[in-house]
Amino acid sequence: MANYSPTPPIWADRLLKWLCPPQLLEELLGDLHEQFADQVAQVGELKARQQYVVEVLRFLRPYFISRRAVALISSTTNTIKTAEHFPKPTAHQFRHTRYGEYPRPSLLHHSMLRNYLKIAFRNLWKSKGYAAINVIGLSVAFFVSVFLFLTAYFQLSFDSFHEDGGRIFQTYLFSNDPEKASRSGSMPLPLIPTLKAEFPEVEAAARLMNGSNVVTYNGKYFDKQVMLTDPDFLKIFSFPMLNGNKATALNDRSNIVISQHMAKAVFGNEDPMGKRVQLGLDDNKKDFIVTGVLGDFPDNSSIQYDAFIQIANSGSYQVDKDRWDAMSHKAFVKIAPHVDQTAFENRLKSFAQKYFSGSFESLKKKGAKPDERGDVFALRLQKLSDVHFDTAISGGAGAPITLVYALSGIAFFILLIACINFINLSVARSFTRAKEVGVRKSLGALKNQLFVQIWGEAAIICFVGFVVGLILAYLLLPTFNTTFQGKLSLDYVLQPDKLALILSIFIVVTLVAGGYPAWQMSKFNAVEVLKGKITIKRPGILRNSLIVTQFMLSSLLICCTIIAVQQVDYMRKQPLGFQKEQVISIPVGNKVNGQQALKRMRNMLANDPTVIALSGSTVNLGLGKDRSTSRSVIGFTYKEKEISTDWLQVDYDYLKTLNIKLVAGREFSPAYSSDTLDRVIITESMAKMIGEKDPIGKFFQTDTAGVKYQIIGLVPDFNLYSTKNEKKPITMYLAHSQSIPYIFVRVAPQSLAGSMDKLKAIWKEVAPQSEFIASFLDENTDSWYKNEERLSQIFSLASGIAILLSCLGLFAVALMVIEQRTKEIGVRKVLGASIPNIVFILSQDFVKMVVLAIVIATPLAWFFMQKWLDSYSYRIEISIWIFILVGLAAIVIALATVSFHSIKAALMNPVKSLRSE
Hints:
The protein is α+β, with helices and mostly antiparallel strands. It has 33 helices and 27 strands. It is 50% helix and 15% strand. Strands 3, 4, 5, 6, 7, 8, 9, 10, 11, 12, 13, 14, 15 and 16 form a 14-stranded mixed beta sheet that branches. Strands 19, 20, 21, 22, 23, 24 and 25 form a seven-stranded mixed beta sheet that branches. It has a four-stranded antiparallel beta sheet with strand order 18-26-17-27.
């Protein structure tokens, strides 16, 4: 590294730059700085600085202040003739100053640009290793960061296409339970009609219930996603109406509005308007008339559909339409333009107290206290733009916002690390190119010309890295989409706004990574450089800071990766309360009655020794290949206590199939006909909630005018849903009048391999029209953790790339630094230093930087991952050993990277290293 050398007062240089015409500045500064260097050697730095100020003040002449002087540069005498001998030029003439017989060359002249390119290519070809390291680092960074940014951009654009998105909200219920505050997007059926009747500021409101059904037309069956909603739905959302009238398309219970895709699938080239289709199976079929065709929903829509019918067609509508305790659907409202969300929510407080009084009383009995907004229980609004990320009220369908932030943050980190590599290598390389810059300046090159030339070299490297990154992106796009469940395609990437984003990233990286080193090199003082002096004050601070930043980011990502992987593994190993192995889950679908399919399968497999038990349920355990899940929660009052329980329909042998042991009582049995009418089996947490130590034989009612249920069995708690949440009370019941959407089959361990093929053959006989999409239950439960797995995969990929780029940069910087210390190493060897001593001296500075990076990264990783883990009911405790092991690994990696050059330099013959040029 260059030693410190005295420099003139900075303010004096700035004053001279302000006073002096641009065409004189380079030579004047050069002469003054050379004179200053001589005076330092003769009279000392203090007097030299004083004399420098005096020389600058001598230029306070009228023609300098008024900018009327024109300087004539003489190549022989280097004398400056004053402006008294020349006519006074205008400012316009100043910008077109001539050098002797020739005009001042333009930076953008084609001959200059061609010359810059030639020089740039020659310099890069001369330093092929330097160029290759930068191209590799930038191409990987461009490829990964561009697609991570685009994926995050896609997620953030959800539901942004609706015209009045700022006035559309989803309602949700907030409950400040003493055990844990909760939010739910499931609403009672009477909510929306009552809101519209009592609040004139509600411009439109609609209920939305997920549904799927079999659509029949001309004897053909189509399995479609038929949503149930209200007529206002078409007024709230901006899905384009291709045919029909939005105002009247859903005004009748027999109306159906279909998507463009469904219209083509069902009707082909026929005009669907006015055509009749049937929904349902067997005796439950109903006729509907097509009254509208909607455009297909875009990929960034949280509402997906094939068709819409009125919510009054729901099977439970007549029973639940006046019940405020039966939560069954989502609700959306569009408020008037002048209405403020906070003010409207305040008005909803009295509304909630009026219609949800039972919830208020229950929470108060539990000792619930108001939250920071003063609410124990409240009806609130969530902006449409945030619904996709709010997994609590969207039913877990959206992507967690932490995942989106992680994608953006990691993309930024990777780009930053690549830029740091570029800057470090360029700054380190600038010391080897200092004399080149000095010679060019002495031959008349201006600062801006040098900047353009050096920055041009950086732009070429960035461009090559960008092109290689795009090629990698094209080749690895399918793998990227599979890994991160993305929906990116070349068509999506080639859209104008996406191309603008990619181009912006390229320009920013080029300016940051190439602009700073070019700016620094163009500032070199020609006189001092040619004397072998480079006056960059404390040049190691920038390089060291950037290396510390690199390894800090890498260590941070590695720590986060390990913690995320441990959390996923911990959740997987949590006891679920049932045996998931050797159980096959079969989604029934809409083209067959689940009860009938289960009955036929029981008959066909009754004498099969490889089948241990069969049963069915309304809820799949985990996520099967149909990627669907559902939940039914019932609330009621028992002995003045508010009870909330998962209401689960099952079939005979459910406990046997899942290997759930009875604590007390009995299982459902065909021997008891009343089991299908008013008998239930509950979990231990349900027994605790109702306050019964011995619940067998006890009765309760979910509705004062409804069925009186008797408890016949008690089982341990089990996870009906993900272990990310606590086990909830569960009540199981039989209902042969209702369909069974999922069938479970437990098979013997020895027949596990061929069981799937056997069941597939049987399914063709049982339900020839339905696709066989069975899966093993342990695979389904693993799908509960797909978001966590995706996050850990992102961290793993990012940490791997980050550490690779960091080591690549450290490798190159170490090479540059050791090359500059070649003579020092030779002197040390001549004076008796051993090879281990030299390796230690060369490596210790880099190790110190890595240790500092780990010290910074450790508390950051602990803080961020603690916040992430706090969202889980079952979570690990972060161990200090994670940070210790990551720190040791980072030090070993850094040592291995630097030691290659250190050992090579230590083994070099000192005669060669000390030989003068």
